[in-house]
Amino acid sequence: MIGVDIGGANLKVVDERGAHIHYCPLWKETPIREILRGYSSAENAAVVMSGELADCFSSKQEGVEFIVAAVKDVFPRALFYGTDGTFHTTPVSELAAANWLVMADVLRDRYSDALLVDMGSTTTDIIPLNAWDHLKGQTDYSRLKSRLLVYYGLLRTPVSSLLRTVDLEGSQVGISTEYFACSGDAHVLVNLISSDEYTTATPDSCTPSREDCLRRMARMVCADVSEVGESAILNIAEAYIREEQLLITTTIRTVMEKYHCTRILAAGVGSGVLSTWLDAIDLNQEMGSLSDAMPAWAVREAMLRTV
After folding, report:
1. Beta carbons of 240 and 263 less than 8 angstroms apart
2. 125 within 8 A of 118, measured Cβ to Cβ
């Protein structure tokens, strides 16, 4: 049995050997089938998704149907976890964005007093594990309203989504709204992650090296590195990180107080960053690489406990 999490940018698989993360953007011709055929020796697949929201689909339902069909071409008996907390064999609407819920389903008994914060490449899920009945049936829209989902992640968030101006040499300089640089660039430049951890495509399709991150970040003020200097570019990255940290930690504390959670679990590719900002248990330390693919791990665990 393998667990599969199909997002808009990555396809993650967990099997008895561990976690495997494949870059698989759904806004282009997607290799879902080709990737899964590499695991076709498995008995079956338990699947959860969030990629149905990709803008190559005219609706979330179209995305659900596309993903289910692609998986079933390789695993005809695949089972899909839904926001109702149960498994399905057909592309029902409940399959849309259930990846966060299956984590809560598996962890809620073990950490009943905790707030699970899963920072991925694109979003951050904020999940009170003591509120199972309230969590079931929630959509991404309802979670955005209740602040259980914030659309900021470790790697793919545009810098201009949080910054409008930046103070450079005592002047407020406007920020370009072009997709010149993203959170991955900022996190590399302030040494919160290494270039090796910048695993998604960069805005300009160049490398995640520090040199290329500097060049992309300089573009946020329509400049070259030689024009403004490295110090100014680092100021832009640091300003972004300050806004990101304030937004995410404030939201976490608000949700934690509302649901009376007493501790925080940090998971996902951004668990290390979260742990530097919060007094949190880093599940990466307890689970290793499985934490980076937690929905895939959780959907496999949820299925194994039913057989």
Report:
1. no
2. yes
